[in-house]
Amino acid sequence: MILPIFLYGQPVLRKETEEVPADYPDLRVLIDDMFETLTVAEGCGLAAPQVGKSLRLFVVDGTELKEEYPECDGFKQPFINPEILEESEEKIAYSEGCLSLPGISENVIRPKSVLVRYQDINGEEHEEWLEGFRSRIFQHEYDHIEGNVFTDRISPIRRQFVKGKLMNIAKGRTIPKYKFKKNV
């Protein structure tokens, strides 16, 4: 089922998320729905707060980016209760956008690689270094489960430039091409 994507201004995007318990009801259904929603919206990552769930969960699908970013080949998976354990000192800038902030893209500086820990759909724990664009997607979605959006990471001057666009999204004046939760 395609879920509505919550847009900037919805309180759930700023709310502290909770761990996903091992017995969370219909977790597989939620993850499948999130993947379906992500595909229809043509994104590469979607966090639970973006579909109205205040959970430490996100899904990524970077497979369509494999031509430009070979490290994304086969990068399609859910991340349950993820953590960032370590960050590289080397940082890189890249223009990011977000399904919850349609029509906005800005350069964001992030660590080039991160050491992460997470659970898979079977509850198995994994720890691995993510490099390049895999790292970028993970960090962007991780921000969502921490109650942040990518514009929190841009300079104050750039934030002033996008303030009007953010207000238009929050006031329901921006209509994305995918199913969304209207701000009231």
How is this structure best described in words?
It contains 3 helices and 9 strands. The protein has 184 residues and is of the alpha+beta class. The strands form 3 sheets. It has a 5-stranded antiparallel β-sheet, sandwiched between helices. A two-stranded parallel ribbon has the order 1-9. A two-stranded antiparallel sheet has the order 5-6. Helix content is 24%, strand content 27%.
On the 0 to 100 scale, the average pLDDT is 96
Largest sheet: 5 strands, antiparallel
> Which outline best applies?
globular
What ranges have pLDDT less than 50 throughout 5 or more consecutive residues? none
Number of H- or I-type helical stretches: 3
Calculate the terminal CA-CA distance, rounded to whole Å: 24 Å
Helix content: 10-25%
The structure class reads alpha+beta
Number of strands: 9
What is the string of SSEs from the N terminus onward?
EHEEEEEEEHHE
**In what order do the strands lie side by side in the largest sheet?**
2-3-4-7-8
Radius of gyration: 16 Å
**Percent range for β-strand residues:** 25-35%
